[in-house]
Write a structure and sequence with these properties.
The protein is of the alpha/beta class. The protein has 10 helices and 9 strands.
Length: 263
């Protein structure tokens, strides 16, 4: 019995050392990142999300265009993905392998869709997946930043139809509970658009995005793409994200080009 107890103690001590070692590894990586950023060293920012972040028709391109030469800006966002499918398809593992210093994470548009491979509930599974992203980022010593869903640009009675509120609220709640920076792009983009007319807001619409082409296939009168962004929209909303990021993460201020400045 004594030998068994001794063996169990050895196993327990081994497991404890593994846990402590893992925690120490996270801390040392985070400390190294903080020191490097504090000294103005190189920074890697990884963007994760759906087509409203992707370089083709999302704000990600506008964001990456206004960081300094010291920033490696990696856009891993993919068209048509949700918090669930991005993990299930292996895209999240690929993004983590980039070993970024900061991860900007925005989903919601495809989480709304009923397809089983995509759908999440904002109060339960969507929130759980966001916590998974946060935990995984922290495990590699990096900083997670949640971004609420970019507003769509369909108007009704002179105001934007706010059809992403539940997902935006869930992201804000998870951010508060996990002590994570939240960029409330949904609220900011909605506020901007509510000061416009439908015609003015359509000045941000993408014209040739593949997702919109697929949705319009066979239609006599194609529907305007009020989800994805043209170059103007990418610049406006990319700037919106960048300016909000440096207000919340002030250490990144020197890494973002100001209005009218050059890299």
């Amino acid at each position: 019995m004594q030998m068994v107890n001794a063996g169990m103690r050895v196993v327990a001590m081994g497991l404890l050392m593994m846990v402590v070692g893992a925690g120490w590894g996270q801390t040392s990586l985070a400390d190294a990142r903080r020191a490097r950023v504090g000294e103005g060293g190189p920074v890697k920012i990884v963007l994760v999300g759906d087509s409203t972040v992707n370089a083709w028709g999302g704000w990600g391109k506008g964001f990456c265009n206004i960081v300094t030469a010291k920033v490696t800006c990696v856009n891993e966002a993919l068209n048509g993905r949700s918090t669930k499918s991005f993990i299930d398809e292996g895209a999240w593992g690929k993004a983590l392998a980039d070993k970024g210093d900061y991860y900007l994470i925005q989903f919601g548009h495809n989480d709304q869709k009923p397809r089983e491979a995509l759908h999440t509930d904002p109060e339960t599974t969507y929130a759980a997946y966001l916590r998974r992203y946060i935990g995984d980022v922290r495990a590699i010593g990096a900083v997670p930043v949640l971004v609420t869903s970019l507003s769509r640009r369909t108007f009704k009675d002179g105001k934007v139809v706010e059809d992403l509120n539940e997902y935006a609220a869930a992201a804000r709640r998870v951010g508060a509970e996990e002590n994570v920076t939240v960029i409330d792009l949904n609220a900011m983009s909605t506020k901007l658009l509510d000061g416009m007319t439908q015609e003015e807001a359509d000045g941000f619409d993408a014209e040739t995005h593949p997702d919109a082409k697929a949705e319009n296939a066979g239609k006599a009168v194609p529907k305007l793409d009020r989800t994805h962004l043209n170059a103007k929209g990418q610049a406006v909303f990319g700037r919106m994200v960048a300016d909000s990021l440096v207000k919340a993460r002030v250490e990144l201020g020197p890494y973002v080009v100001g209005e009218g400045e050059r890299k």
